[in-house]
Design a protein that fits this description.
Elements (H helix, E strand, L loop, with lengths): L3 E10 L2 E11 L4 E5 L6 H8 L7 E6 L2 E2 L3 H4 L2 E4 L11 H11 L4 H14 L15 H13 L5 E5 L7 H16 L3 E6 L2 H7 L2 E6 L2 E7 H4 L1 E10 L7 H6 L4 E4 L2 E5 L7 H9 L4 E8 L2 H9 L8 H17 L7
Parallel strand pairs: 3-8, 3-9, 6-7, 7-8
Antiparallel strand pairs: 1-2, 1-4, 4-5, 9-10, 11-13, 11-14, 12-13
The structure holds adenosine-5'-diphosphate and magnesium ion (MG).
Length: 329
Amino acid sequence: MPVIETRDLSKNYRRIQALKDVSLRVEKGEIYGLLGQNGAGKTTLVKILLGITRNWQGEARLLDVTAGRAEARRRVGYLPEDHRFPDYHSAASLLEFYGGLLGVPRVERRRRSPEILETVGLRERMHYKIRTYSKGMKQRLGIAQALFHDPEVIFLDEPTDGVDPIGRREIRHIMERLKEAGKTIFLNSHLLGEVEKICDRVAILQKGVMIQEGDIATLTEHKGTFLIGLAAGQMFPVEELAKHGYQATRRDDLWEIAIADGQEIDPVVDLLRGKGLGIRHLVEKRQSLEDLFLATVAPAEPGVDRPGKRLRDDRIQREARSRGIGEKP
Ligand SMILES: Nc1ncnc2c1ncn2[C@@H]1O[C@H](COP(=O)(O)OP(=O)(O)O)[C@@H](O)[C@H]1O
Ligand SMILES: [Mg+2]
């Protein structure tokens, strides 16, 4: 039974179609990443699942009940994007306050707060005022708040936005620990490099439409392109391979060979071994999630060859960054 499931989920804000026929499933214990540039519809989808946004069409289920029902909401935690805590609180007093709102008895709150702040690495600073915290610490406090009632599913909306690399790594580690504890995590992000490191499966939204979904390994597979390295000092037989219809291109210390659809790399290996060459490296190439993302949102025109394509790719990437997609350099 999936923990989260939507089918043909659509949402309009007057004339803006924020989501169009989005179908996804998240299984228990997964870290699921929803990606897309600003305005793609990520926050809207989470808000629908949590019952914050209403008047949608299609199906949306959370923990086996229709999205928005109180019995499901009690079992989820939520870190909203761009949240702000009153900064006169300390981490400890803030959790104490929220715990009170949740109706958690005082003794329980006193016991639970340091425990959760330990989980997010804030225990030592728990009596400092929030105004002295870095952005990363505030985000970790936000996660602590989302964990207070020990939820089964945790929604994190852009948890690493505006956080420096060390802070981002800390947040990643928290997510890893939550996964180990059996929690399901739904992560909204426009930071593809981040997502690539942590998510089991991802979906890419573009203008409310899901354009890709799958596990990271499959999505980033670069089918049919191999990188081959020979033992030191051996010449790569480029011309010999060309005679057999294989074009090899140098990539630093390795050689890249693309083979035709449905073919195997074995004949290339046989050719190299037949010439007495020692193969030290052979791997099927992967593309980064960012490559995939850029290729899907801005498909390459046919017939553009490599050097030109590289330049174009660089331009697309720069544009994408300026629109807030991808890793910030
Ligand atoms: N409350 C709202 N009223 C009107 N339009 C909205 C509202 N919330 C979001 N939108 C629009 O819906 C689209 C999707 O927004 P959002 O879900 O916030 O995207 P994301 O989280 O991917 O950046 C955007 O075009 C946004 O301007
Ligand atoms: Mg958003």
